[in-house]
């Protein structure tokens, strides 16, 4: 099979790659770009561990062919922080609310949360629960994650008004 040229932006950095038609975005992120924060969970779109944001929308990178992302803006957990020494409000809130236990689901959970807040800066608890419904966590009961997202939303809104 002939490789296909791919031009993408990942965490603000441009990449030109030649990819196989069957390569997933997850494979490209982890194996070619070394961005291992995006996790392989189930490989069938059931768990959400591989969630990244494409053009501001949460997607499952294990089900997305890399060629489908040509020309798109991709954000992974590694690109969430504006500065290396400063956590994003979502990351801070997840730590504060102990919404992280084993941590395997956390990158996907945070990226799904980021997409929720990008499209609805003042979500209700139900909207957060619905937005996170595609992300499975075996360690917690989701209450901590929901509280973390709601607090991060307040923090972000407050920062925008200062």
SSE arrangement:
Layout: E1 4-10, E2 13-19, H1 25-32, E3 51-54, E4 57-60, E5 73-75, H2 89-96, H3 106-119, H4 125-131, H5 143-160
Parallel strand pairs: 1-5
Antiparallel strand pairs: 1-2, 3-4, 3-5
CATH class of the largest domain: Alpha Beta
- Mean pLDDT, all residues: 95
Could you say which structural class the secondary elements and strand pairing correspond to?
alpha+beta
CATH topology of the largest domain: Ubiquitin-like (UB roll)
Shape descriptor: globular
Query: How are helices and strands ordered from N to C?
Result: EEHEEEHHHH
Poorly predicted spans: none
Q: Identify the CATH architecture of the largest domain.
A: Roll
Protein model, in words:
By secondary structure, the chain is of the alpha+beta class. It folds into 2 domains: 4-79, Beta-grasp domain (Ubiquitin-like (UB roll), Roll), CATH 3.10.20; 89-160, [2Fe-2S]-binding domain (DNA polymerase, domain 1, Orthogonal Bundle), CATH 1.10.150. The protein is built from 5 helices and 5 strands. It has helices spanning 25-32, 89-96, 106-119, 125-131, 143-160, and strands at 4-10, 13-19, 51-54, 57-60, 73-75. A hairpin with a 2-residue loop joins strand 3 and strand 4 (57-60). The model has no long low-confidence stretch (mean pLDDT 95).
